[in-house]
Structure formats: C-alpha cells, structure tokens
Amino acid sequence: MRELIEKATVLHEALPYIRRFHGKTFVIKYGGHAMIDEKLRDGFARDVALMKFVGINPVVVHGGGPQIDQMLAAMGVVSERIDGLRVTDDRTMEVVEMVLGGRLNQEIVSLICQHGGRAIGLSGKDDSFMHARKVAEMRTKKGALVDPGRVGDVDRVNPDILLKLMAGGFIPVIAPVAVDDHGASLNVNADTVAGKIAATLKAEKLVLMTDIEGVRDGDKKLIPSLSAGQMAKLRAEGVIDGGMIPKVQCALDAVAAGVGKAHVIDGRLPHAMLLEIFTDRGIGTEIVGEDALEPE
Fold first, then answer.
1. Distance CA 103, CA 86 (A)
2. Most CB within 10 Å of its CB: which of 35, 39, 66, 194?
3. Is the dihedral of CA 267, 202, 239, 284 positive or negative?
4. pTM of this structure
5. CA pair distance 275, 242, nearest whole angstrom
6. CB count, 10 Å around CB of 256?
7. How sure is the predictor about 8, in pLDDT bands with cuts at 50, 70 and 90?
8. What distance, in Å, lies between the first and last C-alpha atoms of the chain?
9. Would you say 61 and 247 are in contact if contact means Cβ atoms under 8 Å apart?
C-alpha cells in the first residue's frame, strides 16, 4: 500500500508541470550511453511517448558518435575530432549518413512507435529544412589550421515540416545531417542542431542528454546553473573543453534566442528526462541568461 501511495504522490508532484507544459515544445538531444544500453534506450522511447500523451510536443535530435566510430574502425578509417567536431572526408560522410540517417534513426523511430508514439524520421535533407554552410577551417590544440572537410555549421532552419508533423500528432526524430547551397550533405554537431531547432521553434526547453551529471567547475563539483559569463571564464581556464564546448555554447545561444531554459542532464540515469521535467528537484546543469541569475 505504501508503494501505491508513493506512486500517487509522484503523480501529484508532476501535475503542475504537466499543466504548465501542456502544448509546449521540448527539443531533446539524445545521445551517449542512453543510445547504447538496451534498457535506457527502451526507457527513453517510453518517456518520449509519455510526453506526447500528456500534451507536450517532443522533438528528438539524435547523435551517434560511438556507432560511427565503430563503423569507421571496422572499415579501417581513422577519424579525428577538433573541439567535439569530427573531421569528415567524403568516405567518412558516407558512413555518417549511413549510420545516422539510416540504421540509428529508424531504430529510434521504431522504439517510440512500439510504445504507442507516432514518430517520423528525418534529416536536414528532407524538404531541405536544415541548411548549413561549410566550416572553412578549424584550429587544433597545437594551433594548426586544418580543413575539417564536410563539416557544416547550421545557419538556417525552415520549421514548416516540423510544425506540420507536430500538428498531426507526430514526433519528429532528426538525424544531424544538413545540406549546403548545392544540396550536398554536411556533417553537423547534434548538440548544435538541437539548439538551432529549439531556437527556431521557440521551444520551452532544450534538453541535452550526455554521459556526465552536468557541467562541473574546476573542483569537479556540479554547477546547478551556468551563465554566459561563467561559461566564458571556465572555458578560458580550460575547465570546459572538448565535446562539452558545443553543448554549453549551443545551450547559451538557444536561451539567448528565446528558448525558455536549457539543461545538460545525465542520460545514464533511468528516466532522466521525466526527473528533470516533472519533479521539484532538477538534475544536471541549467543553462541560463545573465539576467536570470540576478536576484529579484
């Protein structure tokens, strides 16, 4: 009986959040261990379907770095990263599209559908809704400038297809592949894609799932809230580096562009999204604007 009462208490705690977020759009960057562990994958799909059923409009943008690495290694292709972005030649681009736009995208769609959701898989090539410009050069940690190949920076998102899908009751599941002016594919960072889409849709929340509890300071302590000024300081000190740079930066950019809030959460934790959205205690790191940190 006590367990049943506790379940009822959880539902009561969630009620004001369900009411508050009904009809709102949440953009979720799905990646890391949550995409590999079978139980976490199934739980994520169930949670996304649940969000839709209670009136929230989830939009999923997925990564797939480890799966791409595995395929490249099997093919004997060496892959290099600079600040979390993969250097992408033509052969690597073929693998990226095959893994992200093919197998992984359809697996996620299928799982959500198995739990009663109506999911549709997309990439930026569908209706050319996600346009990017090629990144001309990047600087390595040693200071050398290199051409990253077919790496793009999203500069335009046409939300028409996403809005129509959401209005029709569908959950868009997006692979982070964009197109350039000539219709050629470009590899784009999934965190950045999620941030750009969230900004375009004026989403209530941007949720970035990763394999750490959140952003940590120089003493390895979790930072509950992080502003642009704090982020710049931590980056200059080398505390925020590598793959965390595009995560935090895209979150800051999204909030500055009108997204309600952004969160970096630990996707290794079962039902991490529901704990973040429907409970009084948040998890991970909340990314806020400068004015949000000022006392009322």
1. 19
2. 194
3. negative
4. 0.88
5. 27
6. 12
7. low
8. 43
9. no
Q: Are residues 272 and 216 in contact, defined by beta-carbon separation less than 8 angstroms?
A: no
> Do the beta carbons of residue 132 and residue 152 sit within 8 Å?
yes
What interhelical angle do 190-201 and 244-256 show, nearest 10?
Answer: 10
**Spacing of C-alpha 273 from chain mean position:** 12
Q: Which two tokens stand for residue 172?
A: 């868009």
Cα(178)–Cα(153) distance, integer angstroms: 9
Pick left, alpha or beta for residue 218 (phi over 0 → left; psi -120 to 50 → alpha; otherwise beta).
Answer: alpha
Residues composing the chain: 296
Q: Give the number of other CB atoms < 10 A from CB of residue 199.
A: 20
DSSP code string of the chain: -HHHHHHHHHHHHHHHHHHHHTT-EEEEEE-GGGGTSHHHHHHHHHHHHHHHHTT-EEEEEE--HHHHHHHHHHTT----EETTEE-B-HHHHHHHIIIIIIIIHHHHHHHHHHTT--EEEEETTGGG-EEEEE---EE-TTS-EE--BSBEEEEEE--HHHHHHHHTT-EEEEESEEE-TTS-EEE--HHHHHHHHHHHHT-SEEEEEESSSS-B-TTS-B-SEE-HHHHHHHHHTTSS-TTHHHHHHHHHHHHHTT-SEEEEEETTSTTHHHHHHHSSS--SEEE--GGGGS--
Q: Which two tokens stand for residue 202?
A: 């004026």
User: Which domains are delineated in the chain?
Assistant: 31-185 (3.40.1160.10), 202-296 (3.40.1160.10)
| Own/partner long-range contacts of 72-81 (Cβ < 8 Å, ≥24 apart) | 81/242, 81/243
Task: Name the pLDDT band for 220 (thresholds 50, 70, 90).
Answer: confident
